[in-house]
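Whether sequence alone determines local backbone shape is best considered at the level of individual chains. In the encoding step, the backbone of a single protein was reduced to a row of integers, each denoting a local shape. For completeness, the protein is quoted in full, as a sequence line and a line of structure tokens.
***
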Amino acid sequence: MPQDNIKKPTVLIVGAGLGGLLLGALLEKAGVPYKIFERAPCVKPLGSALSVGPLVLTVLQQLGVYDEFLSISKYMTQIAMYNESLKPYKPTDYSLVEEFTGYGYHIVTRPQLYDLILRQVPSDKILFGKKVTTISDQDDKVIIRTADDGSYEGDILIGADGAHSTVRKHMYESLKAKRLLPKSDQEDLLFSCTCLVGQTRPLDPDEFPILKEPLCQFQIVLGKDKPYTWITFTTAQNTISYMTIFHLSKITSKTELEQNLGTTGEQHIEWGPHAAKAMCDETRIFPIPIGDGDRKMTLGDLYDRSSMDLISKVMLEEKVFKTWHSKRMVLMGDACHKLHPSGGQGAVTAMHDAIALANLLYSIPSASPGAFSRMFTEYHSERYPAAIESFKNSQQGARVLDKGPAGAVALYVSTHAPLWLWKSVLEKSLRHRPTIGFLAPVERKGTTVPVVSASTEKARALFAKQKRQQQTRGREDEEDKEEEKRDVTEAEATMDERLLYMADKSSLEDKPNCEDFFLFWMCPLSPGLRDHQSAKILSLLTWLAPLQESTLSPGEDPRPQRT
């Protein structure tokens, strides 16, 4: 329910990842004007799979795409872990999640989820092949220019353009020149892992019987004497997604690795097919718990059934930046917090940013610099602590996969924790389930009461106020219609009285005059008069007939001509 009589800010979103796309879909519902700019020329179905659960599913239900999401995802109740000999550890049980929230965890491939959200954004609102080259943040507007000589202006610029954000770079250069940028924000993103991600083509379930299982088979194998961990997921499309993680011997950064490898920044960000192929060759003999009977399978069986151009190698960088906004610019997703994927919270955290920004943009009282500054402060106050918590949770998840003593301790704790402790940890992680305040709420499910975010409360209050106003206007419109109907009825009654008078006059055999004739034709007969006085009207018509025959030419309209 868009606001009335308030100028809505025009929003420019740089980056069409999951977070940027979801923000666009929500702004579409809120009636806030926006455009999304994506540097890639087209959508390429890269990536593996991700876990989507109660922290996001309520919003998908509000958007009306929940049932479709269920059709493209696979329900998951546990994570199975193995050593390199494929001996299982105690699985991690997630079946309690539905009891706590009314929703479960689902595994969905990134391309499938991306396509679902992309279809909620009108095609004219997203522009592909638009690499932003310059940004001009002015007092009354923000202007971006793209590599194809395009120029676009708006009121707000949102950087949803990933870990190596162009928007963040411009913002930080400006703040650094003014000595307003914290030292930690000037440091590189660090990482201790690289990762190969991809998925197979649709497979024959007879050849891969694990695909016949109704639940997602989420499996992690921990390398014994090698710095690798590999993960596989079965999907609703009869594919198998995978992540092969390489643990570096030391923490490094993009800049340091570029210097060691002698590559340019652009080459390093993209990595290229040669790097992915080299990692495939290195890891193709690693065993996976997918074989049937005596047949043993390896990662190579998955690589050989995948399109090499859809396998990519990425850095698993980790960092939460302190500075998220300046003037008319604000960051979201990986542009301001990059999380390790082992915690499964990177995409979810970006989507939560989108929810908060959409709620606040819907509620903004005016399109003024002061209103933007207050909104960005509220956004940072709400989302920064949540991002820090997600960052810590992701690091804890990553420790289970780490090599050395720390990893061994984390693995032991995760597989031997008593049920009461696991239930407590799990329930706590499910309390923050943000919703869209300006869309119809869905019924709350489960035993765990969700914490309502400040941005949701703000949007919900305005939505409720507008709904009351709309209902009041509706009642007033109905009252106006009733009053108009009464006026028409009274007018018809007055005309009926005149016509009945004429009918009585005809019964006295007085001769009709032109005034009687014209008045009759100009006065419509009301339903009541037709039904209850039909005999009198028939006599009136008979009385007027001689006048019509004597005064009108054939085909002439008997009604007086209006001037």
